[in-house]
Amino acid sequence: VTSSSHLLGTHLGTAIDGAECTIRMNDAPTTGYSADVGNKTSFRVVAHSSLYRVLKRPQEFVNKTPETMFIFWGPPTKMQKSLLKIIQRVCASFPNMTAYVVSPGRMKQFDDLFRGETGKDREKSRSWLSTGWFTMVIAVELCDAIHVYGMVPPSYCGRHPPPRRLPYHYYEPKGPDECTTYIHNERSRRGNHHRFITEKRVFASWAGLYNITFSHPSWT
């Protein structure tokens, strides 16, 4: 389940909660949005940059769905001992909580996969992999069939006339515009950015191989 505003008004909550396994990302809440995004959370994949936002709201992210398994990821330089200690402390406070941290060796495998699929070296192209990349790879490894809700296809933001403006996250109505965010990240060469559109092209190539369906919007 992506964090996309395309999910608002879809009434997909019941269908999403009926899935055998439901994966969410970062600090995307379900409270107040469950009619559209459901409540069930089997896994929550969390970037180092979202860790504090998730752990400071345990009632929403830890207590609400005690069956949730957390997978925290970040470059080894970002996953310092202080962050790991915070994760350990929260786990000690909430015995029901199960958490894993992606190891440096596994992080390199995610980088190698990106280079193998795109021909681009992540570091040389000054980019970070997105939480969506980690989540899709984890889903492919775990699941026989995958239904992705709310992710736009790679060509979406280049359409004419352009798509209507939508907030990047369903839970941040005044947040940045979705396509502005995607295009800025894809084209920027200074600083570190996510190559969202490049990643989506890879996901499109995986659809037939790994039985992936994209809906709201549909990719077909």
From TrEMBL:
UniProt organism field: Calcarius ornatus
Domain of life: Eukaryota
Catalytic reaction annotation: N-acetyl-alpha-neuraminosyl-(2->3)-beta-D-galactosyl-(1->3)-N-acetyl-beta-D-glucosaminyl-(1->3)-beta-D-galactosyl-(1->4)-beta-D-glucosyl-(1<->1')-N-acyl-sphing-4-enine + CMP-N-acetyl-beta-neuraminate = N-acetyl-alpha-neuraminosyl-(2->3)-beta-D-galactosyl-(1->3)-[N-acetyl-alpha-neuraminosyl-(2->6)]-N-acetyl-beta-D-glucosaminyl-(1->3)-beta-D-galactosyl-(1->4)-beta-D-glucosyl-(1<->1')-N-acyl-sphing-4-enine + CMP + H(+); a ganglioside GD1a (d18:1(4E)) + CMP-N-acetyl-beta-neuraminate = a ganglioside GT1aalpha (d18:1(4E)) + CMP + H(+); 3-O-[alpha-Neu5Ac-(2->3)-beta-D-Gal-(1->3)-alpha-D-GalNAc]-L-Ser-[protein] + CMP-N-acetyl-beta-neuraminate = a 3-O-{alpha-Neu5Ac-(2->3)-beta-D-Gal-(1->3)-[alpha-Neu5Ac-(2->6)]-alpha-D-GalNAc}-L-seryl-[protein] + CMP + H(+); 3-O-[alpha-Neu5Ac-(2->3)-beta-D-Gal-(1->3)-alpha-D-GalNAc]-L-Thr-[protein] + CMP-N-acetyl-beta-neuraminate = a 3-O-{alpha-Neu5Ac-(2->3)-beta-D-Gal-(1->3)-[alpha-Neu5Ac-(2->6)]-alpha-D-GalNAc}-L-threonyl-[protein] + CMP + H(+)
One Gene Ontology molecular-function label: alpha-N-acetylgalactosaminide alpha-2,6-sialyltransferase activity
Name of this protein: Alpha-N-acetylgalactosaminide alpha-2,6-sialyltransferase 6
Single GO cellular component term: Golgi membrane
Localisation per UniProt entry: Golgi apparatus membrane
Chief subcellular location: Golgi
Gene Ontology biological process: cell-cell recognition; ganglioside biosynthetic process; oligosaccharide metabolic process
Membrane topology of the entry: Single-pass type II membrane protein
